[in-house]
Amino acid sequence: SLSPPVPSGPPPFNDALLRADLEEARVQATLLADAVRAPVGERDGRLMAQLVRNCTVFQERIFALVQEIPEERGVTELLLTTGETVGAALAAHDALAARGGGG
Question: By its UniProt entry, which Gene3D superfamilies does this protein fall under (predicted)?
Fold first, then answer.
């Protein structure tokens, strides 16, 4: 019996999936930034904690992808920009938490 061919090299890169993930990361970062800017009485601590967890996961994933993406794909800048957006939202939350105002 013949065995199926073994793929050589890394799996094909999926631009569409990456772009969808990056868009979701931007959405999560925007929601977190909005939550941080909300008046104290309107902040949802549980939601903010979930957004922080989500943004942290996306930030780690983005930084890992930056190392793996073939340069010719032209998405490295998109990854870095999204990573900076997520990082800024997390930093804003950390600053708020340090002042005792964040979840």
Answer: 1.20.58.160
